[in-house]
Amino acid sequence: MPTVPSKENAFENIPSIKAKTLRINLNRDIYGTFAEIGAGQETARHFFRAGGASGTIAKAMSAYDKSFSDAIYGIEEDGRYVTQSRLKKMLDHEMRLVEERISRDSNPDYLFFSYANTVATIDFSKRYKGHGWVGLRFQLDPDQKEYDEIVLHIRFKQNEARLQQETLGILGVNLIYGAFFKFHKPRKLLKYLYDHIDHDTLEIDMINFTGPNFADVDNRLMSLQLIKNDMTDAVMFGPDGNNLLPAAVLYKKNILALRGSFRPVTKVNMDMFQKSYDIFIREQTVDMENAIVVFEITLSNLKASGEIDEQDFMDRAELLCSLGHTVLISKFQEYYKLVEYFNNYTKAKIGLTMGVNNLVDVFDEKYYRHLSGGILEAFGKLFFKDLKVYLYPMKDPETGQVLTSNNVKVHPRMKELYKFFKYNGKVMDIIDYDPDVLHIFSRDVLKKIINKDEGWEKELPEGIAETIKEKNLFTRKVLEEKE
Fold first, then answer.
1. Which CATH superfamily is domain 17-217 in?
2. Which of 38, 126, 152, 363 could hold 119 in an S-S bridge, CB 3.0 to 4.6 Å?
3. pTM above 0.70, yes or no
């Protein structure tokens, strides 16, 4: 097994790409294959150039022709080649060949690996900048039966295929080097993927770590690191906790999005979801079979005390996942940016479920002063497509009045603009709401949980209170501080 450094300096020297490849090439035990499709054999080239590649590379190949590729890896059901499914088939096939063709008896100390990528670089019209799937299957101990695996999705930002190819080659070296020498620090491994790569040339919008040496890695937390490290603007994970590629999940879908703190998720959140979903799927242009619900949390919402509290984030994720929901974490503080993001992947209907207080914020000019067209520019981006707001009422705590789209108070300058969107059917009231839950606010429930008050359990969906108690969610930090 490669040696784990006992101590690292606060300011580390980043090895050159040649130094990284040479260190791997000179390690007699690291041995495997490279299969690269779509951008040339850019990663393998670095290892060949460094010298000593015969001690590392069993095979390097590119099946560029589709017929050859299909004959080797099989035919994809959707006919596409730059997919996670294709990457997995490449890794399966190449690792199987390594096991079949390299004798363990003769090479008992070999650490097998298979590196693969399937990539589409920028097209001739330069309309689509390109993207790709990159993966590594490897072992850190020759007796390791189950392999470790790192799979990531990338988006190119450069405008030349040659530059994209060079970036991909460097990324591949960083991934292989990190897997063998930084596996014990997955957060750092993630950062090291950008060694010798500018952040504005490449976006990593999904990564998953699996295998025995990553058993303690929570991929939702890794997803959060992608946002924190400015590697991407939005990340998504499913009920199983594994990260999802937003582009694949949202592609051509009817999307219903609910924004909230979900700290914790309450009966109000669930009523908002269920009632708006019932309306959404009955919309004429919505295909129920092609609809997805996304629970979205903005990055600013995660910064409860100025910095992101990762444990607090994990507690929220734990509850939403336990209810079977797909979660999106984004940098989009303004709703129009979220809608713009969705519009990158779908032209189908989009629904936003929000409370009255959120709608009032949407019509607040202060959020749009940075735009040259001000609030009109933002609303042009927000409402010009097939979008509708499903408005959940709010009970005024002082007067007891139930606020809806008919009596909500927006700034006097915004009244006519608000009327325009309401009369054009862009804002629809949820009328069959549960009046018995209107008094529930996540922040109040959270205070009760922390203070160990009574009665908060009945304000949460079934099973959520039990999960909070069993795992000490939202209270671990308080307990630790007391100790």
1. CinA-like (3.90.950.20)
2. 38
3. yes
